[in-house]
Amino acid sequence: MISTGDLKKGVAIEFEGMPCTILDWQHVKIGRGGAIVRMKLRNLRTGSTIDRTCDAGDKFRRLTLDRATVTYQYQDGDQYHFMDTNTYDDIVLTEQQLGNAKNYLIDNIELDIVSLDGSPLSVDLPEKVVLRITYTEPGYKGDTATGGTKPATTETGLVVQVPLFLSIDDQIRINTTTGAYVERA
C-alpha cells in the first residue's frame, strides 16, 4: 500500500478499481479543514486522463508494471501488432489501448510495452520520433524559418504545425508528449 505522502509522478496505483499512473499531484492544506491531495491520473486501460481529489492519508494499492521491448509490425483494422524482441511473440493492442500513441507508430519502431499481470495495457513512446511529411501546402519565395507556420500531414496521419519552408517528403522530428514540431531531421 502507498500513502498520499509517498506519491510521485509516474507511480502506478489502483484508483477506484482502475490501474492508473500519476501524471501530477498537489498536496493542498485548506484553512480550517484537513489537507487534501489533488491528482491527475491516466487510466492505463483506456488512456483517458482524469482529475481526482482525495483526503491526505488515504492509501492506494501500488501496482507493479512489467515492461518489454517490442517492435511495431503492422496494423490490421483497429488492431496493432507488435513483436517482442526477446521472445518473438506477437502482441496485439487495440486502437483504444494505444490512444494517441497510434499517431507516432511507424514500421519497425522500437518501444516499450506496458503489461499488468501478463495483460498488455499500452506502449511507452520515445520522447521524439522522426516522421515524413506526406502533404503540405507549398512554400513560396520569401518564406523564412522564423516566419509563420502551416499545417502538415505526416505518414501516420498526424497533422502538425510546421515552418513555411518545409515541403512534402521532408523528415521532421516531433515531440510525442506535446505533439509539436521540434526540428527538421
Structural write-up:
By secondary structure, the protein is mostly beta strands. It has three domains: 2-62, SH3 type barrels, CATH 2.30.30; 66-124, Nucleic acid-binding proteins (OB fold (Dihydrolipoamide Acetyltransferase, E2P), Beta Barrel), CATH 2.40.50; 128-184, OB fold (Dihydrolipoamide Acetyltransferase, E2P) (Beta Barrel). It has one helix and 16 strands. The strands form three sheets. The protein has a six-stranded antiparallel β-sheet with strand order 1-6-2-3-4-5, with no helix packed on it. A five-stranded antiparallel β-sheet has the order 9-8-7-10-11. Strand 8 and strand 9 form a beta hairpin. It starts with a strand and ends with a strand. The model has no long low-confidence stretch (mean pLDDT 88).
Low-confidence stretches: none
DSSP helical segment count: 1
Q: Averaging pLDDT over every residue, what do you get?
A: 88
Estimate percent helicity.
under 10%
From the coordinates shown, what is the CATH architecture of the largest domain? Roll
Shape verdict: flat
Class derived from helix and strand content: mainly beta
Main location: cytoplasm
InterPro entries: Elong-fact-P_C, NA-bd_OB-fold, Rib_uL2_dom2, Transl_elong_fac_P/YeiP, Transl_elong_KOW-like, Transl_elong_P/YeiP_cen, Transl_elong_P/YeiP_CS, Transl_elongation_fac_P
GO molecular function: translation elongation factor activity
Domain Elongation factor P C-terminal: 129-184
